[in-house]
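Input C-alpha cells:
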C-alpha cells in the first residue's frame, strides 16, 4: 500500500514537472516569436510577408507588434538570455560566431543541433544526387578565399561522432569553463577544420596523394613548396610561400 502511494506521488510529481517545463518553454517561445516579428517589421519587411513566414494572419502580426519599438527589442533579448533561453540568432551574424566559443552551454547545444541538421542535409544530398556535396574548410571571414573538400559518407560519420563526443561533454558540464575536448581553441580556422573532421595536412600524406617525387634536393624543395602552398590554401598558415 505504501509503495503504491509512493509510486503515485512520484508519477504526479513527474507529470507536474513536465507541465511546468512545457509552460516555461511555451512562454520563452512566445517571447522569441514576438522578437522575431518585431525585428522583421523594424527591418522594413511587409506585414503580409512576415505573416506568411510566421503562419499568422496580417492582423495577427499587427496585433503582436503594434506596441513594440526598437529599444524594446534589446529588452526582450535580455529577458530571453536571463531566463536561460538561447537568444534568437542575429540576422547580421555569421557562422563564424561559434568558432570562437559561445558564452553558455545552451548556445553550444544549439550549434550542435545546427551541425546535425547540416549532416542530415548532406546525407539527403548523397542519397539523391550522383555527386557529393562540398564544404569549405575556411571560415566565412576568409572570403573570398575558399578551400573546398568533398563531403562523403565517411566524413559525415566522423562529424556525427565528433558531435556525439561534444554533446556528451556539454551534458556533463555546468558551464563552458568546464569543457575540455569540446572547448573551441584560439584559432577559428582550426576549429572550423575540427568541426568538419578534417585533420591538419601531413607532409607525407600530401606527397603521397599528389604523387610528388621528393628524393632529390630539387624535388624535395618543390614538394615542400607545394605542401606549404596547400597549407596556406587550407588556412592552416598565414605564410604564403
Amino acid at each position: 500500500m505504501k509503495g503504491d502511494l509512493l509510486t503515485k506521488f512520484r508519477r504526479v510529481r513527474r507529470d507536474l514537472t513536465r507541465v511546468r517545463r512545457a509552460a516555461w518553454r511555451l512562454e520563452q517561445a512566445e517571447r522569441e516569436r514576438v522578437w522575431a516579428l518585431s525585428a522583421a517589421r523594424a527591418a522594413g519587411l511587409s506585414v503580409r510577408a512576415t505573416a506568411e513566414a510566421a503562419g499568422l494572419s496580417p492582423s495577427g502580426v499587427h496585433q503582436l507588434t503594434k506596441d513594440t519599438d526598437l529599444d524594446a527589442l534589446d529588452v526582450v533579448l535580455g529577458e530571453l538570455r536571463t531566463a536561460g533561453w538561447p537568444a534568437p540568432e542575429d540576422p547580421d551574424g555569421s557562422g563564424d560566431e561559434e568558432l570562437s566559443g559561445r558564452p553558455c552551454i545552451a548556445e553550444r547545444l544549439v550549434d550542435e543541433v545546427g551541425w546535425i541538421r547540416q549532416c542530415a542535409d548532406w546525407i539527403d544530398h548523397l542519397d539523391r544526387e550522383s555527386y557529393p556535396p562540398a564544404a569549405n574548410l575556411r571560415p566565412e571571414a576568409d572570403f573570398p578565399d575558399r578551400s573546398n573538400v568533398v563531403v562523403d559518407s565517411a566524413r559525415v560519420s566522423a562529424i556525427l561522432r565528433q558531435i556525439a563526443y561534444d554533446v556528451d561533454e556539454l551534458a556533463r558540464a555546468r558551464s563552458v569553463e568546464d569543457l575540455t575536448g569540446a572547448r573551441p581553441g584560439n584559432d577559428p580556422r582550426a576549429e572550423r577544420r575540427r568541426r568538419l573532421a578534417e585533420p591538419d595536412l601531413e607532409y607525407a600524406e600530401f606527397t603521397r596523394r599528389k604523387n610528388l617525387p621528393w628524393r632529390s634536393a630539387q624535388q624535395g624543395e618543390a614538394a615542400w613548396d607545394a605542401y606549404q602552398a596547400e597549407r596556406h590554401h587550407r588556412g592552416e598558415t598565414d605564410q604564403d610561400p
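The CA atoms of residues 104 and 176 lie 6 Å apart. The two ends are 80 Å apart (CA to CA).
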